[in-house]
User: What shape does this take?
Amino acid sequence: MANITQAAYKMFILDELADNETTIHRIHPVMKLIVTLVYLIIVVSYDKYELSGLIPLFFYPVIIMSVGDIPLKPVLAGLAVAAPLAIGVGIFNPFLDRAVLSTLGGIDITAGMVSFASLLIKCCLTVFAALLLLSTTGMNKIAAALHKLHIPQIFIIQLLLTYRYIAVLMGEASRVYTAYTLRAPNQKGVSSKVWGSLLGLLLLRTYDRANRLYQAMKLRGFENQYYGVNLHSICRKDILYLIGWIVFFIIVRFINIPILLGLLVTGVIK
Assistant: This one.
């Protein structure tokens, strides 16, 4: 909490990267959204003990980051936010599932270790895909793509308002922390004795601020309708982008490329 303003900036820097002009950025948002959804479905469809089959799926985020000129640091920062949740969910797998699958260097590799590693890899892949969609498309165009796919407006508006509310929350958190440090200048961090009261104050302040923002929107004619931004028409390159990635995902899903390459190198398959 020492530098909430910088944390808020890091959080929205990916949305700012969506203004770049690269080949990936110029792909139609609907195509990018569909590719991302298919990618997420493919990733989560793997068995919990699968490791090698997931490796080729790293090609997607690597290529998108390279062609879209997306820096690695903000993507890793976003991953760091989601990683603790995945670790918390799977940290006990090695202790609960102790069936030995193999032995490597005298160390027993249990099913729990494999499932935990698989969970972490899936977490990395899915978070990377979501963050890269945001950094190459932007939240406004993502909402427009959802509108094109006939997603109900209430869900689109809720998504946009929740995303904007994060900025309000971070801003109020910065003000609360600044006020606290001014009243306790010699204290490092926030005392655990006031965590509850500060959290309650933060929620009340953000609720009040968000309510005033909503009232301002209503005074300016907001009627719970999504108007969105205009998107360019879908062209041939957009369709090729969609078909190319989906074909790649299907091939990777049903053919274990690392094992196939291993068999070819060892001469088992000629």
Observations:
- The beta strands are 100-104, 107-110.
- The chain has one domain: 4-261.
- The CA atoms of residues 107 and 133 lie 40 Å apart.
- The mean pLDDT is 84.
